[in-house]
Prior knowledge:
single chain, mainly alpha, Ribonuclease iii, N-terminal Endonuclease Domain, Chain A, Double Stranded RNA Binding Domain, 2 domains, 3-stranded antiparallel β-sheet, 50% helix
Amino acid sequence: MGSQLNNQRDVGSKPLTIGQNPRRKQALAELTARLGLADSTAVQWELLDQALVDISSSAEHNNEVLEFLGDAALRLAAAEFLHETHPHMSVGEMAAVRSQLVSDRTLAALAQDYDFGRYLQISASAAGDRAGQGSRLADAFEAVLGALYLSTRDLSLIRPWLDVRFGRLTQTIKNDPARQNYKAALQELTQAHSKQLPTYTVSEISHRHGDPERFYAQVHYQGKLWGEGKGPSIKQAEQQAAQLAYQQLQPLIAVPVSAGPTATARSK
């Protein structure tokens, strides 16, 4: 990530408008250039500014509503992209792929690629919360999409640059039989083979908040240890353990994983 702007401010302080803060306007213009917007004249800068104000920074002027709208715009953009570029993909497979395209993990990674942390305004306490960084970046990414959608009331400021990322991500996801959700894939694989499910044990090995290896997980199947993993959350530790187990078991079990785990809701 690039050098950080001073985006920390006291909670409750009154924000400056874009007209009062030319430095902020310049930073936001830099962000639109990073996104690849060839023409930013349609961007409503006040909305984009609000999209990059975390709730920790201001209880009144923050990005919550724009995040809500951006979530809907993101899902529509992903659905349109898949329908247009993969017309022969089944509805179930499109749902599975879209769930990965709009997951918090994917959005946080995209936000990091575009260096959103450089522009996101957060409180001093939130700045020290490493564990919540990914969630804040994902929320900010959705909020920016919400601001761009409201600027034109359509996807014209979103799809030209986001489709490129969707294309690369979709290819990666299609090449992954587990659809990057290894817990679900492992469950489907083992249940189809023997009607038995893998079992997980998790222990907290560090009490330091934000430690990327705070939790340690093991996954057993038919009495044997097949995978281990560590992560900052129980879910991430289990996913890492499940990935190792899946990679070991899948070649041994002659039961194909159809189109990956079915996803009817957003994968976090």
